[in-house]
Write a structure and sequence with these properties.
Layout: E1 6-12, E2 25-30, H1 36-44, E3 62-67, E4 71-75, H2 86-102, E5 106-114, H3 121-132, E6 137-142, H4 149-163, E7 173-175, H5 184-200
């Protein structure tokens, strides 16, 4: 997919305030320091489309970007150990959960996982929740450039082994590096093929 245009649309404090659900939407989520904004910027070929920060938990709203005038990329608040109070964290969780379960044009959720670490309980629990809730999702491993290739392969295999304890079939897996733009084209190809399928089958979200 060639990115011709990528523009910020709006930030929403609740899912009901998101843009009208008339076109396909793909959301990105992960722990607070997983490198989500950097990956989005790499995918969109835009240095500062999504705001990056040294402070985990910077994204506290649902941020929508219109890509190529025909699909939305959504940047969701990170989950995990953002330095916020418990009450604010609960608000984040409610915002994320309501968005994922109620946004009818959400085609796929990309769950970002830092490939440098062993499988983390919070990530595994979130992935399990997606499966139990019937949410279509993919797993995106980030920061592959921080490790040697053989270590990346080992860590991904470890993760797959952990998931196979409760999953028979695994979702799509992508290994990415925002720094080197690895894996970005594969994710965009998936989105392009999915959009073509939806168009071909006249799928509408606003009915």
């Amino acid at each position: 997919m060639v990115i011709k245009t990528a523009n910020f649309v709006k930030s929403s404090g609740k899912w009901q305030d998101c843009p009208e659900p008339t076109i396909p939407e793909y959301a990105f989520i992960g722990r607070s320091n997983v490198g989500k904004s950097s990956l989005i910027n790499a995918m969109m070929n835009h240095k500062d489309l999504a705001k990056t920060s040294q402070t985990p938990g910077k994204t506290q709203l649902i941020n929508h970007f219109l890509v190529n005038e025909n699909w939305y990329l959504t940047d969701l608040p990170g989950y995990g150990y953002a330095k916020v109070s418990k009450s604010i964290r609960k608000d984040f969780e409610k915002l994320i959960t309501n968005y994922i379960l109620n946004r009818r044009n959400l085609v796929n959720l990309f769950v970002l996982v830092d490939v440098r670490h062993n499988p983390q309980k919070i990530d595994l629990e979130f992935i399990q929740w997606c499966g139990e809730s019937g949410v279509p999702f993919s797993i995106v491993f980030t920061k592959a450039d921080k490790l040697k290739p053989n270590v990346v392969i080992k860590n991904v295999e470890d993760y797959k082994m952990e998931l196979h304890k409760t999953w028979e079939d695994l979702p799509e897996l992508y290994v990415t590096s925002a720094e080197k733009k690895e894996g970005c084209e594969e994710i965009l190809d998936f989105i392009e093929k999915t959009n073509d399928f939806l168009t071909h089958n006249n799928v509408r979200f606003d009915e």
